[in-house]
């Protein structure tokens, strides 16, 4: 098992999430959900840009249009132009008070999948009312997994036949047979509270699963067949949230983090809480898929 040096990028995100690599723009892009901010880190000069958002953004998908994303905003899926701020709603499931969209990623067929989480159980009327939704090309919505408290760790095997997903509150990373529907297949790994809670995840070119452990100060690499930990990236932040491979050679692991739940402000939290981290773990990722809409 190995550990790796990490480079912090000082952003002090309240709840950094959803990082992806845009290979055409050569930049990492991610969201600070609670601050309603979108971040872009240009690779060549490490120039950092931030953009105010009209709503909280849980996760995002790249599109074929430069400067345009599809976002899983609190209320639903929308096409969003970063420079102008123009927003077009694409699909919105029935609104439930206290429930918002969280983690999401584009599957190997170019369909954006994102799930909701229960933020306020009292307002929602229950703690497991979240659903994993797939935005189809005709802009309809297909429910894939239901009765979720907090959707996370969404990613796919390189061939797209297996979907990985967790309800963070269970501490269980699950594998699903994936096609027109998602069929539960097996438990990949059951995490202990001492290890941390599974948050965001991504898959490398070899099919290994990289999982951020909220409360665990690290991202770990799992063998997809056995769930065994083969590598870890230790971080100077307690709450890593989401990893993604990027860089010109797809060999850089970017990791978002959060200071929320630790303090009332970033100044009261640990020095690197909420920062973005860059590591070189000796693995290569896969190009991020772009959403395809009819």
CATH fold assignment: Neuraminidase
CATH class group: Mainly Beta
Give the class from helix and strand content and strand pairing: mainly beta
What is the annotated CATH architecture? 6 Propeller
Total beta strand runs = 24
| The CATH superfamily title | TolB, C-terminal domain
What is the residue-mean pLDDT, rounded to a whole number? 95
Low-confidence stretches: none
User: Going across the major beta sheet, what is the strand order?
Assistant: 1-24-23-22
Binding site for substrate: 100, 102, 120
Domain SMP-30/Gluconolactonase/LRE-like region: 15-258
GO molecular function, one term: calcium ion binding
InterPro entries: 6-blade_b-propeller_TolB-like (IPR011042), SGL (IPR013658), SMP-30 (IPR005511)
Description:
By secondary structure, this protein is mainly beta. The chain has one domain: Neuraminidase (6 Propeller). Helices cover 1% and strands 51% of the residues. The chain is built from 1 helix and 24 strands. It has one helix spanning 121-124, and strands at 6-9, 16-22, 27-32, 37-42, 48-52, 57-62, 68-73, 76-81, 87-91, 99-106, 112-118, 130-135, 141-148, 151-156, 162-167, 172-178, 182-190, 197-203, 209-214, 218-222, 229-234, 240-246, 252-257, 276-279. A 4-stranded antiparallel β-sheet has the order 1-24-23-22, with no helix packed on it. A 4-stranded antiparallel β-sheet has the order 2-3-4-5, with no helix packed on it. It is globular, with a radius of gyration of 17 Å. The protein starts with 5 loop residues before the first strand and ends in a 15-residue tail after the last strand. The model has no long low-confidence stretch (mean pLDDT 95).
């Amino acid at each position: 098992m190995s550990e790796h040096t990490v480079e912090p990028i000082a952003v002090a995100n309240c709840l950094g999430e959803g990082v992806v690599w845009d290979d055409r723009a050569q930049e990492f892009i991610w969201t600070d959900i609670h601050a309603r901010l979108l971040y872009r880190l240009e690779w060549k000069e490490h120039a950092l840009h931030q953009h105010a958002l009209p709503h909280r953004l849980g996760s995002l998908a790249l599109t074929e249009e430069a400067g345009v994303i599809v976002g899983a905003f609190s209320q639903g899926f929308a096409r969003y132009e970063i420079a102008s701020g123009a927003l077009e709603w694409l699909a919105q499931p029935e609104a439930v008070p206290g429930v918002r969209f969280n983690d999401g990623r584009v599957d190997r067929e170019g369909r954006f999948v994102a799930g909701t989480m229960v933020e306020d159980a009292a307002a929602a009327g229950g703690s497991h009312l979240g659903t994993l939704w797939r935005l189809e090309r005709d802009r309809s919505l297909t429910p894939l997994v239901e009765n979720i408290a907090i959707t996370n760790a969404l990613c796919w095997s390189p061939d797209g036949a297996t979907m990985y997903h967790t309800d963070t509150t269970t501490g269980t990373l699950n594998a699903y047979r994936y096609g027109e529907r998602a069929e539960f297949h097996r438990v990949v790994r059951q995490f202990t509270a001492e290890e941390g809670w599974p948050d965001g995840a991504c898959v490398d070119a070899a099919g290994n699963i990289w999982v951020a452990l909220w409360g665990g100060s690290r991202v770990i690499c799992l063998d997809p067949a056995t769930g065994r930990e083969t590598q870890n990236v230790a971080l100077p932040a307690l709450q890593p949230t989401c990893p993604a491979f990027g860089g010109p050679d797809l060999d850089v692991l970017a990791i978002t983090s959060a200071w929320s739940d630790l303090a009332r402000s970033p100044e009261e939290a640990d020095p690197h809480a909420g920062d973005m981290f860059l590591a070189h773990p000796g693995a290569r990722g896969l190009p991020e898929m772009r959403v395809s809409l009819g």
